Fold:
Amino acid sequence: MVFNTHLALAEEYDLCQSQIDEYQNNGHILLRNVIPESEIAELRTSVLRSHEALKHEEEDFQKAFRITQNLWEINDTVRAHVLSKRYAGIAAKLLGCRDVRIYHDLTFFKEGLGKGKPTPWHQDGHYWPLDTDGCITLWVPLIDCPVDMGPMSFVSGSHLNKNAEHLPISEESDEYIRNLVEKENLSVAPAQHMNAGDATFHSCWTYHAAASNTTDRTRIAFAIAYYDADAKVPIEPPTNERRAANLARWFPGAVPGGPAATEKNPAVLFPHD
Structure:
């Protein structure tokens, strides 16, 4: 048995009310030093090894980024981070809920030298099969990520609507949201330099995108998607194929109208609920 010695992951992150207000107003926030410095190297190594082990499941989104998912199920170090009360505590406070559950984790690798193409503007909510707006993603680079490596940009306040819900990530979603930004004079928060261990949190309804990676290194990023622990599965059937696939994959055995709580979706702050 492997015992969790990642004591730093139990230390509460010092989140102030003004930061909570910023997230709730804008639908996104950048927080520094979310992953303790002492933990970054081991997590990076574990994510790289786990990604390689799941290579047969890798998805390539239009050459913008490569993902594998649910690394926490095969690696103890990744599991310690995904189930960390430190990160989940931030997510719950930003959402304003008592606890969060795990939707899934995933890698976001964007190739360097321009091979990692721009990530189109999109809303993640197109893919989320849940009856809640209490959904949030932690996105963290595991190496220093300058602006020309492709960290994310966000449209502030866009989490308050679902205008692009019908569109998967694509050139169409990119054009649609760019037109909305211009027509409605929406506020774009540009990408910022992120050190390894800094993290953005964004709602599944926040418009976001990323530029091409023009550096000579692959952008190595990791994400954890959380949702309000009291969320339910919608009574109505999924409205698109990806929601249907995600419902089957990430919520096995869950029933319409019932709790979105399976063995794949542990509650983090109060795990016995």
Remarks:
- The chain is about 25% helix and 20% strand.
- The radius of gyration is 17 Å.
- The longest strand covers residues 100-110.
